[in-house]
């Protein structure tokens, strides 16, 4: 394991300390099994001369996980300095004084392994400038920084390092394993050095076992039964038992927040507490190396092995269903106003009847860019938790972002869950709308036949329940499918059928606000169809009306940009009084993207 960044940091601190005539004090903290002691050992062997080739090791934790007393640790240090047990003073303070006197003028590296609490180290902090002390600990013991210790943090190995370690431990067996299988096997270990060693021990000399292990791995519970020695399970047990009592329940429950990571507000909902309390608990879990900050500021995540461990520790007293319910319901209230900021289209579901405070479009897009994976996870979690109304509304609320941004495979998977929940909830309007949404996903993915089937189902459902907005939308989308297949006559016929629904609908069936928007969108679609037919004057007429509407709608930047693109294309063919390049540049600005971006 290279750990180049950490090794360089330790050497710099050694150099700075020696130049200042001070002892070098470091503490290496990381989750169990990530190589804390290995790094300390490597630091010693790479810098032997700086320590006069003298190494002393002190154990701070017993085999059962209990901490060793400071007095016993001082005894180990004194033995390392050559003092016979018979000469050890009886009291802790006297031993500490003898330790300091024996260290004067000496040069050595002392490693104190597996420290549980900073108090274990206080009497062993050297004052002599030739001494280097490296403390290894599971938790980020910030109190050590009061003694001028420099923290050195370790994370899971990056993929290339993990692969090298696996190959190194497998020896000749690595060459006998299919490269793709080997990569999958390494990926299942999540860069955890101890797990890599355990897996390599099981596979070494039995290359055929690698494929079986990959095939048997299920979700985050990786490689079930592989830890035959119990080393991994035992290490997690010890880590959990050393947690403060007030951190054990949060450690278990936060693992049920759907998605790859989460922020403090989601944690507060999961724990049914206030923001400040949740933030404090998260900070403490991060310091205990049970959570880690994600690369995105303000987001936190479990390492996969720890998430699995946390979930397995849940007992009957922990209401995991309530955690999922609180988080997913809260997430829906956060999603609704941000979805509304992207477009004023109609939506099925109570959450969208009063979507809440107005949110700026740019802020909404930023929120979605961070939260969309959690949104998909919340759909699945709510469905599994039998919160089907929440599940299908979440799915509906994600539609516009996915329609704009893609992520089509994830979108289609999400829609399958949402549709199932809509059916289980007995909501025909939701089935109607989500069928249409899935059709749009299929169309975007280049599957017009599947799209047409879904739009036809949505149309039939809308007509059966008398839902005029759903009927109008389905006809419009069927027209877009035909336009995609360059059957422009059928496309225009569908657009006419869509407008006919608008004209015969009552105000209760299609509110005026939606009516105007629908007509403007049909103008955009007709303009596109007639543009493709080279009927430029007709296209100019249609796009002019559509653009007048979307020019007045702040949340409709995407549709305004589409109109500008059509107008620019028309202006490049006939004289309209518009500058084509100016239209294209304005379209790009409307979406806050580069001038060369495709709309």
Task: Walk me through what this model shows.
The protein is mainly alpha-helical. The chain is built from 26 helices and seven strands. The protein has helices at residues 4-19, 36-46, 70-80, 92-103, 159-170, 179-188, 193-203, 208-216, 231-242, 245-253, 264-271, 275-287, 304-312, 320-342, 361-384, 388-397, 399-405, 408-424, 428-444, 448-465, 468-484, 488-504, 512-532, 536-550, 557-571, 580-590, and strands at residues 24-29, 55-59, 108-115, 131-137, 150-153, 292-293, 300-301. Strands 2-3-4-1-5 form a five-stranded parallel beta sheet, sandwiched between helices. Strands 6-7 form a two-stranded antiparallel sheet. Helix 11 packs antiparallel against helix 14 (320-342), helix 18 runs antiparallel to helix 19 (428-444) and helix 23 runs antiparallel to helix 24. Mean pLDDT is 91; it is low at 593-599.
């Amino acid at each position: 394991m290279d750990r180049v960044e950490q090794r360089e940091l330790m050497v710099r601190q050694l150099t700075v300390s020696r130049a200042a005539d001070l002892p070098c004090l470091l503490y290496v903290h990381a989750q169990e099994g990530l190589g804390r002691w290995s790094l300390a050992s490597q630091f010693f062997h790479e810098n032997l001369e700086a320590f006069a080739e003298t190494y002393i090791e002190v154990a701070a934790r017993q085999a059962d996980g209990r901490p060793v007393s400071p007095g016993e640790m001082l005894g180990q240090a004194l033995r390392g300095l050559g003092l016979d047990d018979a000469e050890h003073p009886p009291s802790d303070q006297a031993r500490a004084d003898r330790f300091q006197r024996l260290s004067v003028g000496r040069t050595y590296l002392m490693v104190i392994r597996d420290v549980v609490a900073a108090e274990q180290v206080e009497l062993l902090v050297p004052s002599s400038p030739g001494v280097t002390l490296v403390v290894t600990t599971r938790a980020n013991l910030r109190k050590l920084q009061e003694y001028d210790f420099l923290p050195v943090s370790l994370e899971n190995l990056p993929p290339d390092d993990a692969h090298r370690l696996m190959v190194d431990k497998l020896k000749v067996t690595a060459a006998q394993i299919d490269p793709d299988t080997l990569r999958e096997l390494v990926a299942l270990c999540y860069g955890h050095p101890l797990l890599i060693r355990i897996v390599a021990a099981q596979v070494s000399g039995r290359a055929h076992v690698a494929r079986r292990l990959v095939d048997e791995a299920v979700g985050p519970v990786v490689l079930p039964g592989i830890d035959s020695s119990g080393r991994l399970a035992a290490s997690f047990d010890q880590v959990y038992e050393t947690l403060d009592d007030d951190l054990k329940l949060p450690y278990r429950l936060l693992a049920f927040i759907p998605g790859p990571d989460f922020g403090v507000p989601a944690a507060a909902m999961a724990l049914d507490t206030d923001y400040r309390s949740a933030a404090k608990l998260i900070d403490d879990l991060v310091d205990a190396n049970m959570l880690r900050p994600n690369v995105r500021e303000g987001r936190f995540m479990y390492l996969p092995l720890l998430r699995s461990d946390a979930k397995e520790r849940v007992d009957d007293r922990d209401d995991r269903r309530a955690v999922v319910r609180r988080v997913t319901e809260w997430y829906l209230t956060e999603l609704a106003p941000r979805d509304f900021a992207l477009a004023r289209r109609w939506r099925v579901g109570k959450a969208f009847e009063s979507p809440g405070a107005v949110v700026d479009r740019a802020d909404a897009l930023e929120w979605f860019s961070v939260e969309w994976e959690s949104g998909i996870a919340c759909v699945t979690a709510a469905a599994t938790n039998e919160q089907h109304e929440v599940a299908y509304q979440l799915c509906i609320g994600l539609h516009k972002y996915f329609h704009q941004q893609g992520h089509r495979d994830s979108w289609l998977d999400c829609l399958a869950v949402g549709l199932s929940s809509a059916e289980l909830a007995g909501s025909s309007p939701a089935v109607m709308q989500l069928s249409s949404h899935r059709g749009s996903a299929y169309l975007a993915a280049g599957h017009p036949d599947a799209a047409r089937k879904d739009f036809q189902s949505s149309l039939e459902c809308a007509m059966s329940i008398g839902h005029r907005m759903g009927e109008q939308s389905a006809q419009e989308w069927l027209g877009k499918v035909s336009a995609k297949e360059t059957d422009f006559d059928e496309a225009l016929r569908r657009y006419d059928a869509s407008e006919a629904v608008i004209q015969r609908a009552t105000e209760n069936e299609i509110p005026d606000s939606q009516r105007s928007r629908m007509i403007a969108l049909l103008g955009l679609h007709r303009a596109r169809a007639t543009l493709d037919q080279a009927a430029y004057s007709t296209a100019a007429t249609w796009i002019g009306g559509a653009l007048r509407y979307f020019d007045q709608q702040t949340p409709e930047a995407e549709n305004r940009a589409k109109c500008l693109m059509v107008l620019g294309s028309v202006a490049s063919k006939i004289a309209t009084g518009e500058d084509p390049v100016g239209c294209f540049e304005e379209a790009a600005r409307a979406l806050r993207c580069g001038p060369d971006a495709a709309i």
